[in-house]
## 1
Amino acid sequence: MNNLNIEETKYTPKIDLNCEEGTVSIVGKSYPENTFEFYEPVMKWLEEYFANDAKETTTINFEIIYFNSSSSKLFFDLFDLLEENKETNNIIINWLYDEENESALEAGEDFQEDFETLKINLISK
Amino acid sequence: MEQSLHSFKKYYNIYCDKIKKEAVLEITEIQHLVERDGIVFLSYGGFLSQALISAMTEALEKEADAKDIGMGVSNNIFTIFIELSQNMMNYSKSKDSNCHEITPEGLIIVSRDEDGNYYIQSQNIIALEDKNKIEPKLQEIQFLDKDGIKKRYRELRRSGQNTHGKGGGIGFYEIAKKCDSIEYHFKEINENKYYFHIKTKINIKKEK
């Protein structure tokens, strides 16, 4: 399988999915018009990665400055996908936020509470 | 809301008068009015596109930076602004029950009062069908406190029961999480079309 890299735009984050290193990185703002459509390749890539090509440890770095509500739903679905694969994979999730960005911290805490079985580290920058 | 809309009409009329007279537009005149009413950002127009929304958000970011609004408050302003403007964009694509397109006409204002509280408000025309979807959510939100909103937001996000093609159907709960109060009003234009006003307020954060 191939790596997937999507360049950052004014309203979508920089996305780097690396199957050789087992790393996933989503950094920036997220308020696309068609959120589910935009993230479809990302979700597909993750499904394929966990089905065929997962590394011993997978590290996911999220650093979202702000996002619209459909992105919030999409991230929830993404966490759901990670939860489904947690038994057979070692998954480390880092939720990075600026210490002044209370909303980003709160969003990370919500995901922590919603996915208690996942290891989500909240990391202040 | 009414007051802001009134102010807006005032600027707009001044602008139109000047154009009609083919005179040079006195930008300072509009600037004075905008400053007096604490308006940080104002946009009025027809069809909203994603490109336009992101350009407006970028302008708003520059404005927030220049006015030294802290990251916590400014990110809440941006999120509400994006939710309201993307809603406007989507509602303007709805058809009314006679299959006529809804006039893409909307107004969105970000303003600040003397005490430093922020307001983000919008007005646009929506179809009856959309009113019927929006109103119960807003009614529910009015009855909930901050914790209740947070709980409901997470419940709906988890269940996906409001999820549709464009999103999770949780936009108003997202807005309610990020502001301190919401006022809204529907005004009938005809049996198929309504004006929809919504005004959100972000209270000034006390110095820690």
## 2
Amino acid sequence: MPLASFTFLYLFLPVLLAVYYLFPQRMRYGVLLGISLVFFLLGDPVSLLFLSVSATVDYGLGLLMEHFDEQNPRRRAIMVVMVAKNLLFFFGVSCFCQLHGLQTPLGLAVCTLLGTGYAVDIYNGEALYEHNWGKFLLAHILFMKLPAGPLVRYRSLCEQFSPKKADLAQMSESICLLIQGAAKQVILGVPIQQLYTALSGFSRSEHSVFSLWLMPLCAAMSLYFTLSGYCDMARGLGGMFGVALPRNFYYPYQSRSVTDFVGRFNISVTAYLKTYIYHPLGEDSGGFASAALNIGLVTLLWGLWFGFRINYLLWGLYFVLLILLERSVWGRILVKLPVFLLRVYTFSLVLFSFVIFNGRSVGQSLFFFLGMLGLGGLAPATSPVLYLASQYAPYLILAVLFSTSLPHSLKGALRRKSPAAAALAGAVCYGALLILTTGFLLHP
Amino acid sequence: MRSQKLLSVFLLLLFFVPGVLFALSGGWQTLTLPSAASIWDGTAAQWTENILAESFAGKDFLCSAAAALQTALGRNQQNGCFYGEDGILQNLPDADEAITANNLQALQAYSAQTSSPCYFLLSPTAAAIAQQKIPSLALESLFNQKLYIQRCYSSLSSFRTIDAYNGLFSHQSEYLFYRTDSRLTALGCYYLYVSAGEKLGYTARSMDYFSISYPMHDYRGNLTQQVPYAQVEPDVISLFHYQKHNRDIRLVQDPLGNASAAPLYDTSLLKSSDPLQVYLGPNRGVTDLLVSETPYDGRLLVLTDGSCNALFPLIAIHYQQIRVVDLRSVTADQLAQINPDSFDQVLFAFSVETFGYDSLVGDVLGED
């Protein structure tokens, strides 16, 4: 069940809220577990079965690990088994699905990587052993983070399952995030994805320089609005059910360097990789070669988050190369440039990265890349592309605008000046946004 | 803080209200508990989604608002149709070569059975004629119907072909096609009548010979299903009545079976599900147009797809009898009873929309 659907927004959610808040505080995590189980069951019952078993095995192994003192080598063995099991499950199922053209099971990455992190955390003493199976399972299958994250550490989640009082004032922020996320996906993400699909259906002879520039722009915007829309919805829903989830995107397309971009795009994945790979490897304390290797590994995995394809691997490598170049070659020049130029520099390089990201093969990406530079013997623009662009231009302009922090800054300024006016404007804007999103769902 | 609480309550209500209205309207009764099998295969979620979407409170308002915004943002194409204030036009993809070849073969085979001269009228759709309504950047990628018609005509050397394209294109700014339907208006059919005259051997009457009535001003045709919320002005249905010489044209429905006579243009049919039935009555496969008080004694057999039914009452003034066979509903028995040799002329009248994409012609005539 997609979060941005009638069933979820107008049937599932109101029932969930009513049920959740009707129960006493101490029972609410149990209700949340029930809700998550139902959500998972309706979305992907097969995955629910496998991931519940996987989480239960982790829970049991965690309890087993607790029985051994810190010096006992069996603790390490159990941790290795837990990590290996989760990673094998994640990579194995992902690769299987990719090879057979199947959809990746709901919540696979989120659940297995949470289990991996839990194993490492309890081994290192950074998290407490979980004795409550229900809470452990809930942390794995918490419904709002299943579709697209964010990826969270176990300990930050389990701390939030304690009884909490509902706060109506705070809830407005959460509902606004939920509406904003749905609108991002439905009003901007879907049309831009449609444009991208239309462009990617062109044969090589039908392409033009313009279409090849338009494609990565669409891909970048579509990916951002879809993923950040999901994460905004997850954060909003989390807030409504008393669970604070971290943000996953922080205006990545207004980054001032490629390094900055990697830190703002899929933030929770970056943080996870830093916690479990970059920091244990010694960060950049071992000289340039060691730092390069560590950064390279983390960035490469960051790229592979989207799947196991040669193009995603190259996408990661492209960022590794740029980050290392920024660190060692032109980083000192960049800091002297005006902010506007830095943003243009970063956005251009990010746009080129999407040529790699979206290519079906290396050869196709190379064709796109050369074509963008006018080296493919293509026409500057053709009527079909110009027509398509004219159809979707307002969506692209809106997408570019809403991918920046400008709307947020305006909202903040209004709130500082007049909180009451900001609340009124918020009611009107978010109400209208929800109505429009519903309209777009009904009339796609 | 208080304003934040009020905002929360207001926004929460927006999520609850549709469900409450759904319940009050009895919508819950349509929802049943999903079976284990439907949950397992994922159809339960989709089924619930469809039920909720269908009966969503204020659906029309929400869809209209979304459609208006989408149009304001520059969208003018949906479900393969261009749309704007001045109408909906179907954007045809390239014609299916195999279907076309099969249809052409069927025409040739049918014409080989008769010694009567055969005529072929292939009429273009609005997208080829009303090009001024199509965004200029989209014109290049349009299917070239003119070329397609020429290609079909050239492969039927034994037929006399009627140039419908130029006859319509020279009047492209006029009301030739309905704004909400893919078929030709009575005026569009009038220009086909003029184009056909030279080949069929009659002198087309000028517009002065007809009185035109407008019995329906709110017709919404088949294209509104493709673009349901487009802000398009409804259509006007017009009827051409021949004024001179007291010529009387009567319709005989199903003349080969339970024949029933009716006056031309039975306006009670304007209230039916397809008001365009007013031109030839309900589609019963075979319909005769019988003309009395006429100096002409010609008999014309028409095999058609129903795309230009308003044409035949106009042509009828030059004949004693026209037998219209609608291939969409004619039965094999009815077709077998019709001897094309008993007619002076045989006219095949189809739209590109049918001929290039639908195997109807090949299927029906091929069986014969």
